[in-house]
């Protein structure tokens, strides 16, 4: 993992210019990526001014012209969003709760299941079988979310419309009348987590599998000599060796807790389940962009970014104080 | 720094990027467009710096010679069209004709109605829009955002007499006065500007009804549809359902309605049951608009629907299915009744006809509450804020108007609507158009239409509805003789059983529309409290009404109370005030004429 910093590498106070002269080719090669980041990650931040305006896009104006032609409203848009005495505010806060609920469910389930699956795959001895299983597991990742949503919607519908999940539950006798999964808000977080797992579980094992291949085989040998059985080797060698990877991925994922995806919620969300389906992205689309209220959309985006940065630095801090690998 | 300069020149690209995180960009290929756009910016950086296209003065409006359309002088027109019709196939017959006769190639960019608002936001912010703009946005965001060209001076120049005549009688109604830009005409209406005196009206009722499968009526031996009530409507469905638990092997569905993107499928019935015409979310009495979501009428209807659901007559998936899934169900022929507007399930109806399942197509019924007179059908309402406009940064607006002008000639109107003489229709000794059975079947064949019709273009194009010169109807289906001749035997017998000649006769004979009508065309401005209230009313309706209908009848009242509490917390007064204001303005305008 190239993200980690180890104290040994830090340059010994060499003048900047000397380093540059020596490594200018490297700098040159990094320039396109730097430019890309600047253009797509930092320059768009200028658009944040919209959050402090009552922004109405005017066709054909330059960005500066757009900014100048709109009314400044200060923190009005943020107040609207965070005011839980109005319906709009309640709705936004509910969408934050939904986003967190959905992504924590995805994170927790995904975190344990991915590691478990990676361990299991790692234990497969026959390379042919392993490859085959891996390929089968990766496949759903390449389906578009639209297709996944349609599959899920059919699978969860009533038996008469092809709802095989209900068919199955009825046949096994778990339920005595079909469940309308999409009509009961209580199921929605589970549906989101379920579809994410179905789609990405296999794919997410890749990083862990890569980390596992770099484990020194001597460790296993030594463990065997010490009398470790297979489960003990999994626990004390494999899992222990990929711990830095696990911690790093966890920190990164915690930073993305306020992003629980968009497509499933948008495509399967209906009035009847909206209390649990509308997350921040959907809220922004419905009450911001669809209603031409770009300022509100931007304000919601800023709030999300700020909280995400707090979560990321927070979890990084916790990791550091626990003497674990850190992101920065 | 370079990036900054680059950025400040490229339209408000940042707006788009910030408002659409990468998840959205992947949607609909927008990501690729964005990348291309950036590449484009890099290449012509210097050129862009000096081209502030919006301020260009369009000097000679209407002066100069009209464009001579000929194959020797080929032009390509980029057209953005909002429609649920599909794009024509690449070697479409009429496309070829346009190229051979006029040298015109159309580049279609088709957006479905439900995706429209997303696209408009992107177009406005990015400052990039195809030159010919065919939208159906009630909110007129393109107009307010300055993306469309004001057409008044062009029309007054006299260079486009047909277009000028097209809007002349309805100019006042079409004129945008909602602010943001100078008052004026920005779009040519795509529907319901009628020619002829009196115009030939469609024999089909395209509006709202409680539709019922013809076979259900046949099963009950063609009962009278006068004084229809909800009880009778659902009783007919129930007894048919008992006799036919499956249709073509699939479970029979009693009653459904569209909801996704068409929430009126759920919410509008109380309006009609109470004998009001379609004013959208409000009832208008004495020039005052009032919502009816919290009225006794609404309570009665949804209480009834809840009971009907308990009897197994309402498809519970109505509340969770997508529009496509709904249409697919209707097209499968197993839905006995729908509350919908005829155009809304048009594609499903076409599919049933294409399959020859005439007994599974629908007839209109008009249930009302006791003592109320049905007012389901209105006089055809002119579309406003819909149809073709010209992008304000179009390089050559005159050419585009020339193109629309030539499309409005009777010759091209006939080609677009009827097709090519000898191939798609024939002319009798009186000059009246008619078709052979094969030609009619072609028109019902979805694949044939892609190769031989320009339905997407026609949907948004200016149309001479009513009457073409020579006494022919604009649309083949409206031709008086043609309508009855084209009916299949099943439909002829069905009409005969009721002693009627057209489908329109199944609904009420509409009186002249009230001056304000229809209030649904009045939309609160973007960002206003009224607009938010409207959205919240819609959301509350979807959430609580779904629950109210699906719940155990014993719990109905408590869910209803929750719904009323939710409505009470919404700023309904702001919404009603804006609509009332619009209604009053229209009444004043009508009085002033």
Automatic annotation (TrEMBL), chain A:
Entry keyword set: Cell membrane, Membrane, Transmembrane, Transmembrane helix, Transport
Keyword set includes Cell inner membrane: no
Compartments where found: Cell membrane
GO biological process: transmembrane transport
GO cellular component: plasma membrane
Chief location: membrane
CDD domains recorded: TM_PBP2
Pfam families: BPD_transp_1
Membrane topology: Multi-pass membrane protein
Protein name: Putative aldouronate transport system permease protein
């Amino acid at each position: 993992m190239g993200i980690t910093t180890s104290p040994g590498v830090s340059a010994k106070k060499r003048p900047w210019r000397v380093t540059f002269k020596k490594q200018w080719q490297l700098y040159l090669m990094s320039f396109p990526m730097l430019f890309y980041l600047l253009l797509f990650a930092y320059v768009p931040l200028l658009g944040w001014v919209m959050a402090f305006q009552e922004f109405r896009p005017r066709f054909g104006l330059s960005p500066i012209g757009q900014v100048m032609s709109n009314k400044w409203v200060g923190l009005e848009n943020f107040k609207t969003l965070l005011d839980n005495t109005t319906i709009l505010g309640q709705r936004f806060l509910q969408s934050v709760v939904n986003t967190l609920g959905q992504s924590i469910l995805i994170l927790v389930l995904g975190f344990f299941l991915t590691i478990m699956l990676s361990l299991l795959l790692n234990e497969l001895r026959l390379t042919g079988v392993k490859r085959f299983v891996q390929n089968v597991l990766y496949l759903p990742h390449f389906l578009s979310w639209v297709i996944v949503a349609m599959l899920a919607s059919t699978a969860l519908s009533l038996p008469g419309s092809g709802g095989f999940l209900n068919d199955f539950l009825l046949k096994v006798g778990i339920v005595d009348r079909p469940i309308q999964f999409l009509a009961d808000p209580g199921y929605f977080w589970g549906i989101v987590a379920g579809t994410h797992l179905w789609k990405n579980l296999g794919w997410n094992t890749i990083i862990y599998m890569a980390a596992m291949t770099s484990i020194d085989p001597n460790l296993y040998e030594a463990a065997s000599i010490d009398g470790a059985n297979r489960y003990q080797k999994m626990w004390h060698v494999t899992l222990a060796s990929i711990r830095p990877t696990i911690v790093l991925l966890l920190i990164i994922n915690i930073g993305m807790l306020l992003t629980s995806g968009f497509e499933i919620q948008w495509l399967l969300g209906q009035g009847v389940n909206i209390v649990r389906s509308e997350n921040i992205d959907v809220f922004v689309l419905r009450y911001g962009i669809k209603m031409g209220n770009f300022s509100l959309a931007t304000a919601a985006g800023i709030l999300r970014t700020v909280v995400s940065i707090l979560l990321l630095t927070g979890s990084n801090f916790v990791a550091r104080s626990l003497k674990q690998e850190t992101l920065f | 720094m370079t990036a900054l300069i680059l950025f400040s020149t490229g339209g408000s690209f940042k707006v788009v990027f910030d408002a659409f995180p990468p998840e959205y960009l992947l949607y609909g290929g927008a990501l690729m467009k964005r990348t291309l756009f950036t590449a484009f910016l890099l290449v012509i950086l210097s050129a862009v710096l000096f081209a502030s296209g919006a301020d260009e003065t369009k000097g000679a409006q209407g002066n100069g010679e009209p464009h001579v359309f000929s194959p020797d002088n080929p032009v390509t027109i980029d057209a953005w069209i909002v429609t649920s019709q599909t794009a024509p196939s690449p070697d479409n017959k009429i496309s070829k004709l346009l190229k051979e006769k006029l040298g015109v190639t159309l580049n279609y960019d088709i957006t479905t109605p439900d995706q429209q608002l997303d696209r408009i936001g992107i177009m406005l912010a990015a400052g990039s829009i195809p030159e010919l703009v065919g939208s159906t946005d009630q909110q007129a965001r393109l107009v307010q955002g300055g993306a469309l060209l004001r057409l008044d001076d062009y029309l007054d120049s006299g260079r486009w007499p047909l277009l000028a005549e097209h809007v002349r009688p309805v100019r006042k109604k079409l004129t945008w006065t909602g602010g943001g830009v100078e008052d004026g005409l920005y779009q040519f209406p795509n529907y319901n500007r009628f020619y002829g005196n009196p115009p030939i009206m469609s024999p089909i009722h395209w509006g709202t009804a409680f539709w019922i499968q013809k076979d259900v009526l046949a099963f009950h031996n063609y009962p009278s549809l006068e004084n229809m009530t909800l009880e009778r409507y659902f009783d007919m469905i129930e007894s048919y359902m008992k006799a036919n638990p499956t249709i073509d092997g699939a479970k029979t569905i009693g009653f459904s309605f569209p909801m996704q993107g068409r929430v009126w499928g759920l919410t509008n019935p109380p309006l009609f049951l109470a004998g009001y015409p379609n004013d959208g979310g409000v009832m208008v009495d004495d020039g005052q608009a009032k919502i009816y979501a919290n009225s006794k009428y609404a309570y009665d209807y949804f209480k009834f629907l809840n009971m009907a659901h308990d009897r197994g007559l309402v498809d519970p998936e109505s509340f969770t299915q997508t529009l496509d899934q709904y249409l697919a169900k209707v097209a499968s022929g197993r839905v006995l009744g729908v509350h919908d507007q005829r155009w809304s399930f048009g594609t499903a109806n076409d599919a049933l006809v294409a399959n020859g399942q005439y007994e599974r197509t629908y007839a209109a019924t008009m249930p009302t509450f006791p003592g109320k007179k049905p007012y389901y059908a209105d006089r055809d309402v002119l579309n406003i804020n819909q149809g073709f406009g010209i992008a304000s940064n179009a390089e050559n607006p005159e050419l585009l108007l020339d193109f629309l002008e030539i499309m409005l000639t009777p010759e091209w109107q006939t080609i677009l609507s009827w097709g090519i003489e000898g191939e798609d229709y024939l002319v009798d000794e009186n000059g009246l158009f008619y078709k052979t059975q094969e030609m009619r079947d072609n028109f019902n064949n979805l694949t044939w239409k892609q190769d031989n019709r320009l339905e997407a273009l026609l949907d948004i194009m200016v149309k001479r509805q009513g009457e073409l010169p020579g006494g022919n109807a604009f649309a083949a289906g409206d031709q008086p003789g043609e309508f009855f001749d084209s009916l299949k035997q099943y439909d002829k017998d069905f009409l005969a059983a009721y002693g009627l000649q057209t489908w329109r006769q199944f609904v009420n004979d509409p009186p002249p529309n009230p001056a304000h009508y229809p209030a649904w065309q009045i939309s609160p401005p973007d960002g206003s409290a009224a607009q938010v209230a409207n959205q919240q009313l819609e959301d509350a309706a979807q959430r609580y009404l779904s629950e109210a209908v699906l719940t155990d009848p014993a719990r109905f009242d408590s869910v209803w109370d929750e719904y009323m509490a939710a409505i009470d917390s919404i700023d309904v007064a702001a919404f009603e005030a804006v609509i009332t204001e619009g209604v009053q303005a229209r009444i004043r305008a009508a009085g002033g004429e």
